[in-house]
Amino acid sequence: TNGSAPAVPSDQYDSLYLSPVTVGSSTLHLDFDTGSSDLWVFSSLQAQSSLVGHDYYMVDPAKEKQGYTWKISYGDGSGASGKVYADKVVVGGVTATAQAVEAATAVSAQFTQDVDTDGLLGLAMSTLNTVKPQQQKTFFDTVLKQLAQPLFAVDLKYHAAGSYDFGFIDKSKYTGAINYVNADTSKGWWGVSATAYSIGNASTSATVSGILDTGTTLLYVDTPIVKAYYAKVKGSKMDNTQGGYVFPCSATLPDFSLTIGGVKQIVPGKHINYSPTSAGNCFGGIQTNDGIGFSILGDIFLKSKYVIHEMGSTPRIGFAQQ
Ligand SMILES: CN(C)c1ccc(C(=O)NN)cc1
Predict the structure, then answer these.
(1) Most buried among 77, 81, 173, 299, by the most CB within 10 A?
(2) Which parts of the chain have pLDDT scores under 70?
(3) What pLDDT is attached to residue 133?
(4) Which atom of ligand 1 is nearest to the CA of 35?
(5) Given the residues 87, 141, 165, 213, the one annotated as active site
């Protein structure tokens, strides 16, 4: 069985995208995350005060995987932990009858205060799953064999609802050719490398290695590239109080591209104006990857493309223009 689920921006800035998922008998709105590998949900195991505003999974003790626990932390310092259940999970009509559902007992403030997000559905490799004593499969790994093709396709949009397709490529969602490159899955992520970047019409050779990550809002690349980009944005500056590069909201932003598999994958300048700041400027969608050690091609990069994640004998990533 193939299927498709919507990906709806959680706010006016596309901070994250939420997709409806049936977990047991509840419908929750989860953040599909190609940068992690746990399916975890807000649950009835948490204090009532943590559940305000959230939909949550009503655990059934009979379905508990006794002695199993999980604990995850994300790049932004947020995290969650809890117990594990085996239950039915349905995404766009694709059913996993005994999926490992990681029910939270505790979540960090970033999640509690984000009342729209009821949990995450990881779509990276199952080798990054945090469940102990036995690592569990992602939803995609669980349903892989029932899909017509061993792939999912990501169609995130700028300030609009997109979709996640499982098992098929939807020709109505892209134009032109799909350009495929081999994925580096050796670290558990959907890894990819670029051989050049461009700012406006000027290209520069460089090696940019990174991961595709639908669960990260912005595009994080090496500092020299970030500096070269904002040098072309009048009035831009690094604002440590805001935590990154900002610029006047009226600024014209040049397009940015990464050359992957010999093809320029373009990010429209418009997408790089992420959101207004509290100080009357606008916050850039391209920021430095200082301290991370690799680039993160998050939603700012992804939302102009249709991106196929194919787990064949050789994992591949396909890029097409929306
Ligand atoms: C706090 N929230 C909603 C987060 C969601 C996702 C992530 C993340 O790094 N995913 N790759 C971090 C935090």
Answers:
(1) 299
(2) none
(3) 98
(4) 11
(5) 213
**Predicted model pTM:** 0.98
**Cβ neighbours around 20 below 10 Å, total:** 16
Cβ 296 vs Cβ 213: under 8 Å:
yes
The pLDDT of residue 57 is: 98
Nearest CA to ligand 1 atom 8: 215
Give yes or no for residue 13 CB within 6 A of ligand 1: no
Give the contacts of 103 (CB within 8 A, at least 6 positions apart): 40, 41, 43, 44, 45, 57, 59, 82, 83, 84, 85
Instruction: Supply the pLDDT for residue 121.
Output: 99
Q: How many residues does the structure list for the chain?
A: 322
Of 31, 33, 38, 222, the catalytic one is 33
Residues 6 or more apart whose CB falls under 8 angstroms from that of 101 comprise: 23, 24, 39, 40, 41, 57, 84, 85, 86, 87, 89
The pLDDT value recorded for residue 3 is 98
Residue 152 confidence (pLDDT):
99
Active site residue 33: yes
Question: What's residue 131's pLDDT?
Answer: 99
**Phi and psi torsions of 251, nearest 5°:** -65, 145
What spacing in Å lies between the alpha carbon of 216 and ligand 1's midpoint?
6
213 is catalytic: yes
